[in-house]
Protein: ADP-dependent (S)-NAD(P)H-hydrate dehydratase
Organism: Terrabacter aeriphilus
Amino acid sequence: MIRAHSVETVRAAEAAAMAELPEGELMARAARGLADVATARLTDSGGTTVVGLVGAGDNGGDTLYAVAHLAEAGYACAVVLLPAAGRDGVHAGGLEAADGAGVMVHLVAEGPEALAQVVAEADLVLDGIVGIGGRPGLRPEAARLVDAVDDDAWVLAVDLASGLDPAGESGEDDAVWADETVTFGTPKPVHLLPAGEAATGRLTVVDIGIEVDEVPAAVERLEWDDVAALWPVPGRGDDKYSRGVLGLVAGSEAYPGAAVLGATAAAEAGVGMLRLVATPTPVGLVHQAVPEAVVGDGRVQAWAVGPGLDTEATDADAVAQLDVARAALGSELPVVVDAGGLALVAGRREAPTVLTPHAGELARLLTRLGTTGGQRGSGSASSSPAADELPAGRPVTADDVRADPLGHARRLAALTGATVLLKGATTLVVTEGHAVRSQADAPPWLATAGAGDVLTGIVGTLLASGLEPHDAAALGALVHGVTADRVSNGGPLRALAVAHGIRPTVRDLLARGRSAPA
Ligand SMILES: NC(=O)C1=CN([C@@H]2O[C@H](COP(=O)(O)OP(=O)(O)OC[C@H]3O[C@@H](n4cnc5c(N)ncnc54)[C@H](OP(=O)(O)O)[C@@H]3O)[C@@H](O)[C@H]2O)[C@@H](O)CC1
Ligand SMILES: Nc1ncnc2c1ncn2[C@@H]1O[C@H](COP(=O)(O)OP(=O)(O)O)[C@@H](O)[C@H]1O
Ligand SMILES: [K+]
């Protein structure tokens, strides 16, 4: 599992480590690690020139020392000191090291054109403008230099891409767009959350000897090697009932295919037994595609409610199906609720519940439950001026959710007590009292109709086997995403193919776990 820690945790761990170490040792380790990564990238690309963008804090200090190492190794190195105070405005020890190594030092006072030319010549750019002490956004002089970076240069962000909110809660358009981020000690929330993940690029963690293992993480991400420990594997004493029966309330005369996708996914994920509650057309299709499924209501260990459910339909079959859906939501059994089922969510549910909206569904649900737009989510550290200018009392929109996915997912989790799995390129899993989980395993090809129905089938299977909602949701998102990546293999995919890819994917992930060292 990748664990990201808050800035406060990192500062405390840094202080504890510094108390035990000689002055400057942590920064020396950070700079050495940074220079090693930079050297590896320059070796790969055949690059020879390095430019460091240096801000006022210790992030600039790391950068100055790293550039000094690179100059000593023979690379042509320059730095641009961004503070208006010039040489007096940056880390003194770092500047001394850079001077001593023969690094060319440029000041902002030289003017934007001259500096843009310096930056444009770099094969590798070290972004040391700000780190965890930074406020979101770039100042104009920094933004101009960042714009001047050559498209082919490797942009290496020091600790985090400058301009991003270190907590990863507020999005920021004006930030460095890194090819790679070298972070120290532990990842920070921004590296794993939607607001910062894309600008972070590849994430490399350098060990500098700070201790955070015992401290709760702010954000977690399950990795392939976590699957074996979490995935329900049957034992000798199991039967189909003890493994977990899933009741799938899905499919309608209007959207029959969703039931096939959900049922196929559950069967492929190895559900003990599947009961389908649907109207005649989806029942007929599922009979063909998933002969293992049993039709009709009955005893189950968990429910999956919603794929292709038509809550507007009024014929007798649909009404009977909707009655089962409402009864499932009113029961004390675990439920995963998706698509049409979300329209039936009325508020808090005490039993284990996973809601799996995309941004538009989350917006509609929050609006219906009485939340309004025009303010940021409860989890947001700052409020965006654009959002504040909106009139209070208007409906929450999908754009509101996209601007602050974590804040809105937290709001729904607080309103319903449920685990909220917010779908997107990075899928968030939010449960009150737990570290946020963030999974980014899928290729963009997964953004295709029906993909969500497959996810519901997987998460339902995991709930039926007894997994906690937080684990079922994150593990389901991981397996869904990894399967999509394998099925896509760089090209288009269809939802049914993802469903059919689950079995070999889970088998291979379990085999990895068996061969991994204990
Ligand atoms: N923690 C650890 O274990 C270790 C941490 N290490 C390193 O220290 C870094 C943290 O250093 P830090 O605390 O000095 O803060 P940092 O990120 O350099 O920025 C603060 C400065 O930037 C300025 N500023 C703020 N916002 C701005 C903006 N938008 N645009 C422009 N300027 C802005 C602000 O000045 P102000 O404008 O407020 O006068 C202030 O002076 C950390 O990320 C890591 O790299 C390593 O050495 C090893 C061990
Ligand atoms: N850009 C993207 N990159 C990777 N995965 C994505 C992207 N956009 C959406 N997804 C994933 O694709 C799936 C789409 O599900 P959903 O929107 O519910 O589709 P449907 O309702 O048609 O089944 C979700 O699992 C979501 O996380
Ligand atoms: K930085």
User: Anything to note?
Assistant: The chain has two domains: 2-221, 225-356+423-515. The first strand starts at residue 2 and ends at 4. The chain is about 40% helix and 15% strand. The pocket of potassium ion (ligand 3) is lined by residues 59, 127-131, 157-160, 162 (CB under 6 Å).
